[in-house]
Amino acid sequence: MSTDAELFTIGQLARRTGVSSRTIRFWSDAGLVPPAARSAGGYRLYDAEAVARLDLVRTLRELGFGMDVTEAVLSRSASVAEVAAAHVAALDAEIRTLRLRRAVLSTVAKRGSTMKEALVVHKLARLSARERQQILDDFVAEIFAGVDPASPVMGIARGMRQMPAELPDDPAPEQVDAWIELGELVADEDFRQRAHGMVTAGAEAGEPEPRPDYRAVMEHAPRALADGIAPESAEGKAILDRIVSPDMPAVERARTLKLLETFTDARVERYWQLIAVINGQTPPPSVVPAFEWLTAALRADIGGGKPA
Question: Domain limits of the chain?
Fold first, then answer.
């Protein structure tokens, strides 16, 4: 066991601590591990305090602390706890960046993206939480333009803006995929016009429009789709009659068809599914195909299509 009076050369200190002589010399030149004295030949000598100091420097460096931070800790101008807390925050940010980068690369690989597509994916994924939110806010503001703020449909706008403060620390590939797809969707001018048209129609609606019973639609239309029953066929007419009463007046049937044609849109449904995925929720199942089948069946019936 060494005493405080015992002194070590750089070579002896290296053997004692396992730190290379070159590294000790570098740290010593930087003032992190100053020598206690010098030999008659001018060689640096280190005491027991230097051994403890060297061990602390090695630990701080292995934890990723820079030379300036290490010096601040050794000079007691900053505590180890303070420095550690700052580094934890920095590492958390770096980990989030690496995980996001991994998810983006996974998306690019899965899509077989071209260089141009890869650049778009990277750009979208790198957007800050505020920038991502702004894209949705601008989209929602455009499609709800001109709608009375007191209109009940404005409640939908709040849901359409729903985004997490930031992507999760470890975003799943499907979440990155969803954000990228959503960014592309809201940038599509045709989709923006379609969504605006749906919002305007909903805001302008006066009396409640006649609408088919949702449970009846989901009980019969998906089965018709699965069985390959054509909407305009005799079998299709029989299924239609189970969803929409044959006794419904012609004017109401026409209004129901218009309602279905106005508010049935696969892209709008996809918007809500993507929002759910981004927010870490289970996306709602697709119901649009069932309503598209119903729309086709009702259109054929009103148009006097002959049962096949």
Answer: 10-78, 87-204, 214-302
Q: Give residues with Cβ within 8 angstroms of 225, minimum separation 6.
A: 289, 290, 293
Residue 223: other Cβ atoms inside 10 A: 12
> Cα–Cα–Cα angle for 139, 143, 144, nearest 5°?
115
Q: Beta partners for 45?
A: 37
Q: How does DSSP assign 205-269, residue by residue?
A: --SPPP---HHHHHHHHHHHHHTT--TTSHHHHHHHHHHS-TTS-HHHHHHHHHHHHHH--HHHH
CA-to-CA separations, 116 to 123, 135, 239, 280, in angstroms, rounded: 11, 21, 48, 28
Instruction: Give me 200's structure tokens.
Output: 């305007």
Angle formed at CA 145 by CA 142 and CA 146, multiple of 5 degrees: 170
pLDDT digits (tens, 9 = 90+) for 51-104: 888 888 888 888 777 888 888 888 887 676 776 776 676 677 677 667 767 766
8: which strand partners?
A: 46
CATH 1.10.1040.10 at 10-78, yes or no: no
pLDDT at residue number 72: 83
Neighbours of 60 (CB within 10 A): 22
Radius of gyration, CA atoms only, the chain: 34
Closest CA to 96 of 170, 174, 166: 170
Residue 21: exposure state from Cβ atoms within 10 A (0-12, 13-18, ≥19): middle
129 φ, ψ to 5°?
A: -60, -40
- Given its phi and psi angles, is residue 65 left (phi above 0), alpha (psi -120 to 50 degrees) or beta? beta
Whole-model pTM: value is 0.59
Nearest C-alpha neighbor of 219 from the set 242, 245, 247: 242
